[in-house]
Amino acid sequence: MADVAFIGLGIMGVGMADNLAKAGRKLVVWTRDAAKARAFADAHPGAVEVAPTAAHAVRTAPLTYCMLSTLEASTAVFDAPDGVLAAVGPGKCVVDCATLTPERMAEMAAAVRAKGGKFLEAPVSGSKKPAADGQLIFLTAGDADLLEAARPDLDAMGKATHYYGADVGAGSRMKLCVNMTMGVQIAALAEGIALCEASGLSGDAFVEVLKQGAMSSPLIAGKGAAMVGRQYAPQFPLEHAQKDLRFAVAAGDKLGLALPVAAASNELFKRARAAGNGGDDCCAVVEAARK
Amino acid sequence: MADVAFIGLGIMGVGMADNLAKAGRKLVVWTRDAAKARAFADAHPGAVEVAPTAAHAVRTAPLTYCMLSTLEASTAVFDAPDGVLAAVGPGKCVVDCATLTPERMAEMAAAVRAKGGKFLEAPVSGSKKPAADGQLIFLTAGDADLLEAARPDLDAMGKATHYYGADVGAGSRMKLCVNMTMGVQIAALAEGIALCEASGLSGDAFVEVLKQGAMSSPLIAGKGAAMVGRQYAPQFPLEHAQKDLRFAVAAGDKLGLALPVAAASNELFKRARAAGNGGDDCCAVVEAARK
Amino acid sequence: MADVAFIGLGIMGVGMADNLAKAGRKLVVWTRDAAKARAFADAHPGAVEVAPTAAHAVRTAPLTYCMLSTLEASTAVFDAPDGVLAAVGPGKCVVDCATLTPERMAEMAAAVRAKGGKFLEAPVSGSKKPAADGQLIFLTAGDADLLEAARPDLDAMGKATHYYGADVGAGSRMKLCVNMTMGVQIAALAEGIALCEASGLSGDAFVEVLKQGAMSSPLIAGKGAAMVGRQYAPQFPLEHAQKDLRFAVAAGDKLGLALPVAAASNELFKRARAAGNGGDDCCAVVEAARK
Amino acid sequence: MADVAFIGLGIMGVGMADNLAKAGRKLVVWTRDAAKARAFADAHPGAVEVAPTAAHAVRTAPLTYCMLSTLEASTAVFDAPDGVLAAVGPGKCVVDCATLTPERMAEMAAAVRAKGGKFLEAPVSGSKKPAADGQLIFLTAGDADLLEAARPDLDAMGKATHYYGADVGAGSRMKLCVNMTMGVQIAALAEGIALCEASGLSGDAFVEVLKQGAMSSPLIAGKGAAMVGRQYAPQFPLEHAQKDLRFAVAAGDKLGLALPVAAASNELFKRARAAGNGGDDCCAVVEAARK
């Protein structure tokens, strides 16, 4: 029997699962693209087996990590007849690391608990590189003893784990706040570069100034250089960044909180998505800002 | 005769002039509030004298630094009968460190040059603390030999000096790009904290997560803590941050560049100004975001 | 047996049902507040009976009109064990006049059709007074023969009926476009009045000018006077206007269409809602614009 | 000697001057394009003469109407050595019908009065067709006796004249409020049509619904049909509509009033301008909304 099941080997999941394997864990994996799962197993001989279905993976291990990138993908895999929930029974542990809505996380928790399982939401702050480097930040809520059981794994995949209580949804709410702020910061950078270029100044010079001042951050340095150089290979796809802005604005709506700057940013990201940059890195929003 | 004249001892100017004095420069100073000028001179016995007018200060030194915080204040002091321009003659050097419009900087340069003087625009990136610590970043354009003459002073007041060519206005344009991006970033942080608090989560916990991730920056750490703790003592007054957003959006207008996120941020800052937070630190924009 | 069932006697429904009664139709009604249903029946002796449940009403008549004001209320009444769907069987006709999402309308149509019933979506353009005056505009899609059967009723309740094909959802999509435009127009008027008043000019004088020019419309005249006079008795509640803006922006999101002005308007309406104006007329958004 | 001088025969001015001629007034005209002035005179034999300069026109008549479409054009013609102000002397009357900033109008009034002249600001609500049809609305402020002297002319050119007191600037402020609201309404219509089309519905059907409801107005009917049919021949050029939005947002800024919806609309108009629609009719903003 495997130590853990890992569902979802996308941009983020593959790095996370790799770090679990490196930490000595035996994995059973499943992802929609069977070839990807096969390749991952081949790269970790003896440590990883491929399950034919998500349900089979969940059944094969006491503890399952899910990392599916959209609400649609997550729901499809969780609720399918041969999906995650179908395999949950008493004592089964599920840790979901996706960025979904707080409401959906709470629903999943209730469904798992109704079948005697335990649930921890653990959305991550960080994108492709932090996932690969084991530098993610986990924003968790749910069953406290599951958190303790999972902690060595979380430590293998990340550099910090925060716990916001037993009430599932709190982690996702925090994640939305974080990603909303990130989306707006990226829009801020994009409009700054666009104005700079339109003014006849060098975008590189602009990013250089930002890197010397109070705004200096890995985000500014990395996304700034990528925007100026028009390098849009996806670290965190634009359509996912826009999804998080949408979720955050909707969360504000439910709470009666106006978020005019996030809403304007959301529209800018939508424009970029409409122009075909949805699958590019989120920094491609600069293309919408440029015109 | 003094080495340099320094016009404007506001939040920023006092730190800058202090660093010039510490570097051994003899100063003649003028600022609108005579008591402030007197106090500054008293704090630097033997190194600083107070001029009765701006013109007198300019006449008393070969090189003048101006640091007046608004377009109105700058214009009033520059154009007054006993102001800066009145005292400019052949060879007189003027370095203006304020954040004004590119157009106004070009006008001032033309006026100084018409009277035989030299002009360098040198708006700064950085606020109260970097000014006090000699950690400003100068974004300069104008007479290259004046830049070389002023460089030891700029090095005493800052940690980096960028030069964008002889065409005065380029430095202010870069400054506007920088401050626009900063204004939007602060709005991003404010809305993030407001959403976090409205969600029943701790603003401190939110800032903690940001500090561990890709967005980590001195701005996030400093302004984040101030917003959560509602500490609004002015480092960079909100009304000035809003002024820069306004100038940046207007610059985009002239260039035919839409800046929807900056425009939305500008309106949020205006709301904070309208609510009475204009003289507070710019991070008080979180008050407008909270409701 | 009654001619028609009418579910939902809110601000709009009461006027609509009244017009059906005036046209000589025998009604069976149900609404959540039994006292309201009772009062309505008492006002129409011999023509209206009160059903104990929505299901009972639906069973009692061949054709049912639903007019429930929110997605939540509509869903609750439609799906309840003693709700609308429970009573649908072969040949039963349902006309839903609420403003819901296109997706929800399609779901309801599918559910009704699956049980052998017929479904017409017929959201209305118009608010309290047009409902009372039989001047609504129906934006319909669905079963064409049900439309023909319902036409005399629609004519009694409205002044125009548009049909957008068999594909349920098209009527709701048109409705969202209409209400989004209305929401933004109301925001436009609110900001105009706010600027006018802040400029020291009379809001009444402003509305007077609008009424003489190309923008002159019943909306401008009615909402303009109400905003200036701060008369917020609900014709079309602000929280519903905001809901429609939210749905429209979300529809744009799905279609990849940025709607920055609607999104900004949505946030302004949210701010008014947060300030406690959710139950007031939508023109109370001027309160949020004023400060 | 002519009865009146008319300066500026653009899209609006030509219709206004034509109505003065039809009312029996002898005109002396000047406009930047001499061929246009010539053509206008040729079309009104015996009633119109062409002046070689604006100053000459002003000198030739006791009363001058100015209708120059931008702040730049107005300033250039007003302040030029052979411009309007140069020819003002005691008793000379100037009525300015352009949409400028309140501040500029007040400056012009002060300059005219300083030379013994009288000044009335009289910006108009209405575009090309109302100008041609004598259906403009004048929003005036300034010298009350000049208003009475000009009233027959204003009645020949318009259908209503409002007076907001002696304080010049009030008429322009009212005009800004009106045009801001119009700009946002046009943006509202544009986004509505864009969403409608993206939803697979007919834009014509959408405009039809609007024309039957509370939003029905000449603006909706005219601009709606033009947007759907992509007919952008300029009635009121987009770049002027955007200029008015910019002025209005700036006026709000001075007053400490946030105008988030107008600001978002301004950015949408800017995008259209950037895409090359500046000289088209303002309804071409729908092109920016469509993508």
Automatic annotation (TrEMBL), chains A, B, C, D:
UniProt keywords, alphabetically: NAD, Oxidoreductase
Species of provenance: Diacronema lutheri
Active site: K175
Domain 6-phosphogluconate dehydrogenase NADP-binding: 3-165
InterPro entries: 3-OH-isobutyrate_DH-rel_CS, 6-PGluconate_DH-like_C_sf, 6PGD_dom2, 6PGDH_NADP-bd, HIBADH-like_NADP-bd, HIBADH-related, HIBADH-related_NP60_sf, NAD(P)-bd_dom_sf
GO molecular function, one term: NAD binding
The 3-hydroxyisobutyrate dehydrogenase-like NAD-binding domain, residue ranges: 169-287
UniProt record similarity statement: Belongs to the HIBADH-related family. NP60 subfamily.
UniProt-recorded name of the protein: 3-hydroxyisobutyrate dehydrogenase
Xref: Pfam families: NAD_binding_11, NAD_binding_2
Keyword hit for NAD: yes
PROSITE patterns: 3_HYDROXYISOBUT_DH
